[in-house]
Amino acid sequence: xxxxxxxxxxxxxxxxxISLVVVGILFVILGFxxxxxxxxxxxxxxxxxxxxxxxxxxILPAIVGTGCLILGSMIFAFPVGVLSGIYMxxxxxxxxxxxxxxxxxxxxxxxPSIVFGLFGMALFVNYLGFGDSIIAGSxxxxxxxxxxxxxxxxxxxxxxxxxxxxxxxxxxxxxLQTIRKVVLPVAFPNIITGLILSIGRVSGETAPILFxxxxxxxxxxxxxxxxxxxxxxxxxxxxxxxxxNMEESRPMAYGTAFVLIVIVLLMNLLANxxxxxxxxxxxx
Amino acid sequence: MIQAEAKNVNFYYGDFHALKDxxxxxxxxxxxxxxxxxxxxxSTFLRLFNRMNELIGNTRLEGLVTVDxxxxxxxxxxxxxxxxxxxxxxxxxxxFPKSIFENxxxxxxxxxxxxxxxxxxxxESSLKKAALWEEVKDNLKKSAMALSGGQxxxxxxxxxxxxxxxxxxxxxxxxxxxxxxxxxxxxxxxxLKKQYTIIIVTHNLQQAGRISDYTGFFYLGSLIEHDKTQKxxxxxxxxxxxxxxxxxxx
Lengths: 284, 250
Known about the structure:
The complex is a heterodimer. Chain A contains 11 helices and 2 strands. Chain A has helices spanning 3-38, 43-47, 60-91, 96-110, 113-127, 134-158, 162-170, 175-204, 207-210, 232-241, 246-283, and strands at residues 50-51, 56-57. Chain A starts with a helix and ends with a helix. In chain A, strand 1 and strand 2 form a beta hairpin. Chain A has one domain: Orthogonal Bundle (MetI-like fold). Chain A is mostly helical. In chain B, 36% of the residues lie in helices and 26% in strands. By secondary structure, chain B is an alpha/beta fold. In chain B, helix 7 links the parallel strand 7 (167-171) and strand 8. Chain B has 10 helices and 10 strands. Chain B is globular. Chain B has helices at 42-48, 79-85, 100-109, 116-129, 133-136, 149-161, 179-192, 205-211, 229-234, 239-245, and strands at residues 4-13, 16-26, 31-35, 59-67, 70-71, 86-89, 167-171, 197-201, 214-219, 222-228. Chain B has a domain at 4-95 and 169-245: Rossmann fold (3-Layer(aba) Sandwich). In chain B, the strands form 2 sheets. In chain B, strands 6-7-8-3-9-10 form a 6-stranded mixed sheet, with helices on both faces. In chain B, strands 2-1-4-5 form a 4-stranded antiparallel sheet, covered by helices on one side. The chains are: A mainly alpha, B alpha/beta. Chain A binds chain B through residues 93, 161, 163-164, 166-174, 177, 181-182, 185-186, 282-284, and chain B through 50, 52, 55, 57, 80-85, 87-88, 90, 92, 94-99, 106-107, 109-111, 142-143, 145-146, 156, 159-160, 163.
């Protein structure tokens, strides 16, 4: 073996080993949760209310709560994020203003989620007077995911070939018609992917909902957007750290983690599926 | 009669003086080829006629550009109205990721024409004019992306013809195509000039010789010579034209 081949061999072997380690860690985590959590999963666990100091019963309110928060945050963040992304990529020319917004968007994405939580509490809960509520939590989570959605939208639009835009404009289409009829249909599958990945993030965040919506224990379902709810990640935190009987509630914690992971996994699968299905429709 | 005209046109990209005092007229039902080395300004000049240069920021135009006697840079002129009347075919085929039918119908749809009977008729006649009808008539619902490069380019020509343009601009329409497709596109241009005024930018001198009635030679942002193609190729007045045509630079 020559020196060149040897270094080639070493390089590739180390890449392989490192990626296997990464994948391995992921599988260990998943396996751990599944083994511990699966035994708790039952119809009653998924559809029941927590009972006896959260050591028995189910986690339905937390599942419903997380569902409400996902839905609420997306209703708020998706239109705002996608429209900002379109504005930034299609309308703003590359000047200091756009670079400034880009810079701020990136910074926003880097802000720790607990800071969003505090901000949400100050603005939505106190100043706007929503109280601890689904609407306050949803908007806080929405703010958190905005940068992701804006970014994905921008990237998706950037990947649309400019020749399609000029082709459309040359036929006398207005800019808005061009965006609506040519650019967006091509970019849409990738935008949807961004949306769903951000749902994955929303469903797992604890800090932003801590002061804005999450209830420690609330064994009934919400009736309006001004109600508090339980949420899966916060419920998990409660079960693991501050339950009334932590030894007893431990299996419940693993079960909750299991459900949370399944939700995120399903979301990612859905993202993949939609991207492929919509992508096929665009290419036809 | 004059279909289109540029009068004392100067054009700037920022500080760069890209077109220098160019005046040129185009007769109806003629093909004018614009030739010259890369960066000589011929594509910039072509794009003046449907105001595509405006898509790039920080440009400035002096002089007059008219189509059908109307200054297309007048303040009261809507840019999308202008572009409807002036078709453009690009270097790289750029069909939309839609069906063949929808590609051709696009120009009509953005004008608010959605009536099925009109669309059917225009799509058919445009595809026939672009010599593509026979190849695609049974697959109009098929994606345009599935066509070959040459077919795609003819589809783009059909798309441009569907809005019944007064002027057809072509920016190296055959440079990305194989020889057989190129021949087809050239035949097509020959056919189209019966009805349309065509301005075509090309790097291919043989092509300019084969298909054009007039040729304009651009060099460093100036129009060096503009004459009947035959005269230009056989007996150019300017030494620089002579050098370019005989391949001494370019």
